[in-house]
Design brief:
The chain is mainly alpha-helical. Helix content is about 65%, strand content about 5%.
Length: about 140
């Protein structure tokens, strides 16, 4: 952190208090009613703590949620690049050890790993086989 930060905060506080003080002085000059000025000043100060309690969690969590969303988006990009470059060949390599998996070609022409299709009966009551899932040599 910079050394000038506390001075800048004090300067900002003074710059924000000056218009408020000027408004109170203008109110006094026009209406000459100190009772109303101090009554509403006290009400504003009393409500300031309620505003701090209600507003602080929202102001504090909004940047954290934005950072988490940004990190999640970057992580999704990194995972997408990984699986695009390494994931499919790695799955092909590991599927060699799985006897139930076979490589098949999807509609876009790329190789996809999926379960081995075997002949299955269409319904338990009939003996017909499903033509789509029949492999060579099966009835």
């Amino acid at each position: 952190m910079k050394k000038r930060e506390p001075r800048q905060r004090i300067l900002l506080a003074v710059l924000l208090l000056l218009p408020s003080a000027a408004a109170y002085v203008l109110h006094w000059a026009i209406f000459r009613n100190a009772h109303d000025i101090f009554f509403y000043l006290l009400m504003d100060i009393a409500f300031l703590f309620v505003q701090a309690v209600l507003g602080h969690p929202g102001f504090r969590s909004a940047p954290q949620r934005a950072r988490a969303s940004n990190i999640r988006r970057k992580l999704n990009v990194a995972m997408g690049v990984f699986f695009n470059q390494v994931g499919t060949p790695l799955l092909r390599l590991l599927s060699a050890f799985d006897g139930r998996a076979e490589a098949r070609v999807n509609t876009s022409g790329s190789t996809v790993l999926g379960p081995r299709r075997t002949s299955q009966k269409c319904k338990p009551c009939c003996g017909a086989t499903n033509q789509r899932s029949t492999q060579a040599g099966a009835i």
